[in-house]
Design brief:
The complex is a heterodimer of chains A (about 475) and B (about 100). With about 475 residues, chain A is an alpha/beta fold. Chain A has a single domain, classed as Amidase signature (AS) domain (Amidase signature (AS) enzymes, Alpha-Beta Complex), CATH 3.90.1300.10. Helices cover about 40% and strands about 15% of the residues of chain A. In chain A, about 60% of the residues are buried. With about 100 residues, chain B is mostly helical. Chain B has a domain of about 40 residues: Orthogonal Bundle (Histone, subunit A). The longest helix of chain B is centred in the N-terminal third of the chain and has 18 residues. Classes of the chains: A alpha/beta (about 475), B mainly alpha (about 100). At the A-B interface, helix 9, helix 10, helix 11, helix 12 and helix 13 of A face helix 1, helix 2 and helix 3 of B.
Chain lengths: ~475, ~100
């Protein structure tokens, strides 16, 4: 039995029966990370000592005969833009190379309370800006299915940690596809919850109206378990809401799945298109109806996203100023700093990578005097249209299917010279964040050994609906 | 194509220092991105209200109370000290800032 491949429920049962201890499990994972991390580049920081300390505590609890929660004693990896108290937190950026998190993010607190064992912080595109993992300021992450290919991004390390069995599950963040697209490229399950379902407190803000935290897991069931652990209202994030479970009874109803006709138009790989068609046939086998729908404003989602997201980025990243924390020219002996402006200009120039600089500048431009109406305001109006498309669609159907990504994993270096071509990798995922609805990516097959992801989109706070149907579909597809 | 001067102006607003090589590179990069997002000029938004909060949440209030956060961590340093430790320059328990002029 390879224990590092087991699902959360199976490990939980084994821990309770005493088949192995949490310390055994944690040591197993830490050894594997030590041996294989160089190959994959999944972790930036490993916390063996605190992990083993926490595991020992869970084992003591079990030996005292106390009841433990589902995720108790099970190792987890955390994306490096989520704060874990006392641990380094870099967001994949040089500007935070030596930053130590002073407190726990809400989601981390929830995991710790539930007895999770945090084994380390995962690699990512700098400040979650990228679709390939190549924008990490430290080293790129590699796809376990083909080491010459990207794992997707920006939650690159989290996806690879789970896919390569270096962790049982992981947390990521998703602003325009950063959980779902790497989950798709690596052949695992990734959930972007409804906006507001999970608190963003203690997560480095990228685009606050779009960001959500979610789980990357091996199965749909695991995704559900982790989501239920981290969801809920938090006083420190005023956009977070108590999760309203939908009164959905899948056993009684016949599910209706909408397929947007706009998916099959431009830029989609023919293999991916065929795979989606095969999935549609299987869906019919498990008693669901398929209906063609239209999301007519989908074509505006990308340009809309690339105005709103950088605008919010430019405001959120102004906190990195070389004064309060992080990389600062002031620290350099003999640096030519005359005044406050020099501190800003030089610290930010030296600390940020190219993609971060590009997005800050696009955002500043879109918000600047004379351009605000033409860019930002217009985008906020177009965003309403994108949302209304989904409102209309969910009056007719229960769930919507699209591919997660128009292609399978591309080669490392293939898109780094052309930022715009990299942006287009997110064509099916960004509209979800604009609308605020939940969506899950699950593996649905492989093309030439590379995984293809199916995106299952639900209505606002319809996570239960997504889990319920995706679990059935997972059994039907039996992709392992 | 954005001019060199335009990129310099944007960079100044963004408080980003740029080298000459970077300015030239970003002239091209930013121009092609701006071309792409200008597609949005085609959408008819005349009668559309801009969206604010996507889930429809209204103003959310809480009491703004100061809390003591001297919780000892496993490493035995309190939160305030941990936050101050991250600053490049300190004086008498305050973060030191360079003069404006």
């Amino acid at each position: 039995m390879e224990i590092n491949k087991l699902s959360i429920k199976k490990i939980h049962d084994a821990l309770k029966k005493g088949e192995f201890s949490s310390v055994d499990l944690t040591k197993n994972i830490l050894n594997k990370i030590e041996k294989e991390n160089e190959k994959f580049g999944a972790f930036l920081n490993i916390s063996s000592e605190t992990a083993l300390f926490s595991a020992k505590k869970i084992d003591e609890k079990i030996s005292r005969g106390e009841d433990i929660g589902l995720i108790s004693g099970i190792p987890v990896a955390i994306k490096d833009n989520i704060l874990v108290e006392g641990e380094k937190c870099t967001a994949g950026s040089k500007i935070l190379k030596d930053y130590i998190a002073p407190y726990d993010a809400f989601v981390v607190k929830k995991l710790k309370e539930a007895g999770a064992i945090i084994v380390g912080k995962t690699n990512m595109d700098e400040f979650a800006m990228g679709s390939s993992g190549e924008n990490s300021a430290f080293f790129p992450t590699r796809n376990p299915n083909d080491l010459e290919r990207v794992p997707g991004g920006s939650s690159s390390g989290s996806a690879v940690a789970v896919s390569a069995n270096l962790s049982f599950y992981a947390l990521g963040s998703d602003t325009g596809g950063s959980i779902r697209q790497p989950a798709s490229f690596c052949g695992i399950v990734g959930l972007k919850p409804t906006y507001g379902a999970v608190s963003r407190y203690g997560v480095m803000a990228m685009a606050s109206s779009l960001d959500q935290i979610g789980p990357l897991t091996k199965t749909v069931e695991d995704s559900k378990i982790v989501f239920n652990t981290i969801k809920g209202r938090d006083i420190m994030d005023s956009t977070s809401m108590d999760f309203k479970a939908t009164d959905f009874k899948a056993k009684k109803e016949k599910i209706k799945i909408g397929i947007p006709k706009e998916c099959f138009v431009e830029g989609i790989d023919s293999g991916v298109e065929n795979m989606l068609k095969k999935v549609i046939e299987k869906v019919k086998n498990i008693g669901a109806d398929i209906e063609e729908i239209s999301l007519p404003n989908m074509k505006y989602a990308m340009p809309c996203y690339y105005i709103i997201m950088p605008s919010e980025v430019s405001a959120n990243l102004s906190r990195f100023d070389g004064i309060k924390y992080g990389h600062s020219e002031v620290r350099k002996s003999g640096a030519d700093i005359k005044n406050l402006l020099d501190v800003y200009l030089k610290s930010r120039q030296g600390g940020f990578g190219d993609e971060v600089k590009r997005r800050i500048m696009i955002g500043v431009y879109a918000l600047s005097s004379g351009y605000y109406d033409a860019y930002y305001l217009r985008a906020q109006k177009a965003r309403r249209l994108v949302r209304e498309d989904f409102e209309k669609a969910f009056k007719k159907v229960d769930l919507i299917f699209t591919p997660t990504s128009p292609t399978t994993a591309f080669k490392i270096g293939e898109k780094t010279q052309d930022p715009l071509s990299m942006y287009l990798a997110d064509i099916f995922t960004v509209s979800i964040n604009l609308a605020g609805v939940p969506a899950l990516s699950m593996p649905c097959g492989k093309i030439d050994g590379l995984p293809v992801g199916l995106q299952v989109i639900g209505p606002w706070f319809g996570e239960e609906k997504i889990f319920d149907f995706s679990e059935k579909l997972e059994k039907e597809i039996q992709y392992k | 194509m954005l001019t060199k001067k335009e990129v310099e102006h944007i960079a100044k607003l963004a408080r980003l220092g740029l080298s000459d090589v970077e300015i030239e590179k970003f002239q091209g990069d930013l121009s092609s991105i701006l071309d792409y997002i200008s597609q949005l000029q085609d959408v008819d938004v005349e009668k559309i209200e801009p969206i604010s909060n996507i889930t429809g949440a209204q103003n959310v209030f809480r009491n703004d109370l100061a809390k003591k956060t001297n919780i000892e961590s496993v490493r035995g340093i309190d939160t305030v000290k941990r936050i101050l430790k991250e600053a490049p320059e300190l004086q008498d328990g305050y973060i030191k800032v360079k003069a404006v002029f």
